[in-house]
């Protein structure tokens, strides 16, 4: 007999796991399917750290973060695991430029504290940084680092405690739309659900083609580089914040960094994105230009670090043309919900994404303006099914 569920979630990365957890917490009978044995390092949700922040140029993300922060706190309390390290975030950009103006507007609109720092104030407060006089900063004191691996495991732990069923090492072969039930066929069996949530990360472009959807999703390989401190402890969270440099506004020049914490004595600094990649051939990506770019960056702007890569860890970001995710119902099958394309900034938003998807599944009033995430903003539409 084919087992039935209220909801089947495909993909146990951070977004799918947050959705599954929130749905189970709201009384749904949920099956969470993951193609790889857990934990794994092939997708977008592994590693020890992710920046979380209120500071965004788009105030609709700031709005979502107002929910994400307390929801992360709730998950930490449920599991008894520390998931967040508060050290602040220094947003760097050209003084009086559009980036810093947009960040301060979004923060101010939602009543969030922040500090505007001149180039001289940045240098005085953080002598380990070296940026040109044309630069200024917005400091977000409530930002910091999420413990990524622990956060993902926490969602899985509580999902199962709320009655959820997790199957890892079980790739989905096909989703067969239907009313009132959708059938999901895996390498190990068949399952039926009233609703299905597709959160397949870097594999979403390929996966959604089988559901008649062609979305402009592009996976990129983003390599996190770690750089050794010349003097250990100088870049610890107590005196060095997370850093985001908007550069020229193009993703090829956007750099992020986290203090020496996950690997004591090593600071994480990386480009936001890297070369285009096939998720099934991630390690074939040529990231020499990324390594060379970051080596020059560290040499020029972080004199307290050795300008040679000590550790490199690969991850995949899946982007859309406007760098907003797709969180919407399938245009032809309303009981299939798509949550993909988080463009490298979805981890921190995951609890709010789980809340939004749960509201969609349960037909509740929506907490957020979902027009920013609609399928219809792209010209590509389902071609069959």
How many H/I helical runs? Answer: 8
The total beta strand count reads: 19
- What structural category arises from helix and sheet content? alpha+beta
Kindly provide the radius of gyration, computed on alpha-carbon positions and rounded to a whole number of angstroms. 21 Å
Main pleated sheet: 8 strands, mixed
Poorly predicted regions are 380-385
How many structural domains in the coordinates? Answer: 2
Helicity range: 25-40%
Strand content: 25-35%
| Shape category | globular
Task: Give the rounded overall mean pLDDT.
Answer: 93
> Which architecture of the largest domain does the CATH hierarchy give at level 2?
3-Layer(bba) Sandwich
What is the fourth-level CATH superfamily of the largest domain? FAD/NAD(P)-binding domain
CATH class of the largest domain: Alpha Beta
How far apart the termini lie comes to 26 Å
Task: Write the element-wise H/E pattern from the N-terminal end onward.
Answer: EHEEHEEHEHEEHEEEEHEEEEHEEEH
Say what the CATH topology of the largest domain is: FAD/NAD(P)-binding domain
What do these coordinates show?
This protein is of the alpha+beta class. The chain has 2 domains: 4-45 and 149-217 and 321-377, FAD/NAD(P)-binding domain (3-Layer(bba) Sandwich); 86-143 and 218-319, D-Amino Acid Oxidase, subunit A, domain 2 (D-Amino Acid Oxidase, Chain A, domain 2). Helix content is 25%, strand content 28%. Strands 1, 2, 9, 10, 11, 12, 18 and 19 form an 8-stranded mixed beta sheet that branches. An 8-stranded mixed beta sheet has the order 6-7-5-14-15-16-13-17. A hairpin with a 5-residue loop joins strand 10 and strand 11. The chain is globular.
